[in-house]
Amino acid sequence: MYRIDRKLxxxxxxxxxxxxxxxxxxxxxxxxxxxxxxxxxxDQEKLRYLNQIAKSAPxxxxxxxxxxxxxxSYAQAMEGCSxxxxxxxxxxxxxxxxxxxxxxxxxxxxxxxxxxxxxxSSVRRVVLTSSCAAIYGDNADLTQIEHGIATEAIWNQxxxxxxxxxxxxxxxxxxxxxRIAEQQQQWxxxxxxxxxxxxxxxxxxxTSESFHIIRQMGDGTMKAGIPDWGVGxxxxxxxxxxxxxxxxxxxxxxxxxxxxxxxxxPEMARQLLPKYGSQYPIPKRVLPKFLxxxxxxxxxxxxxxxxxxxxxxxxxxxxxTKSIGELGLKYRPLSVTMNDFFQQMIEARxxxx
Length: 353
Hints:
Layout: E1 10-13, H1 18-29, E2 33-38, H2 44-56, E3 60-65, H3 75-78, E4 83-86, H4 98-118, E5 125-129, H5 165-182, E6 188-194, E7 196-198, H6 209-218, E8 226-227, E9 230-235, H7 236-248, E10 254-258, E11 261-264, H8 265-270, H9 273-276, E12 286-287, H10 289-299, H11 305-311, H12 321-327, H13 334-347
Parallel strand pairs: 1-2, 1-4, 2-3, 4-5, 5-6, 6-10, 7-9, 8-12
Antiparallel strand pairs: 9-11
Helix pairs in contact: 1-2, 1-7, 4-5
């Protein structure tokens, strides 16, 4: 097990986010002082869940007002910190201007945080939350690589502003991080590349795409059926653990593909059937690809016919051996992730029988 140095504070950007919430929880429970970078420290409702954790944890939380797109905005928050966890990034699939809403904030935000790390002498390591989206764009891409398995050595080369703009923004932001890291010797960069993150949030009313997916599996949206779309899935709690290990494991280096299971949307839904299938309209049928192609873009404008053609009917495989071997990760079973998440939706009254 990695040894956590509790002496120096750490910075978490986007501290109220889905992954960041669990990371902050683990840090506070370990007795660390967390500098939580947030947009508005006076928004008590948004900070309520982190404050609840901090009340009973041995660690301390301090809030700092920051703006991802303001140069120098992180100077005060980063002061004295040994580790910077940069988790803040927009995860929105439906955008009208991908350049302005996704690409520019992702690159500029990464640049602002990492250039501030250069200017802060206490910083020794930066852990960046990237994504498997920086490794591949569509499932069909995997048919072009050796053994058809996604690994840390691969970069997404098929996404652009007009096709999978979110994936393109994650790819370009991570490339920018490596470019900045290679130009200095003060700190090391470790990058976390999670697949689709699922599981209960610290904040049950979060707006991440993951919450939309689990809700649609139980609110009747998908009762007619679900597309056979292959995905990697990882529990949000395991992603937080990966960040922690990446920060405090001395020999951690490079990128880490963080994914618990090679699965698919129908398989994810199947995990819910034994416990919830009799009370909620969980999808049981797999939709034929031509139907998804025909109606998919009408149901969800973020899904194009090109997306459907290049992903539905294709499996997904990722190699997580580096994360297990070097970061010591033990992944939760898919059924635990899905059932815990669904139960949280019920308890938060976001799903009705």
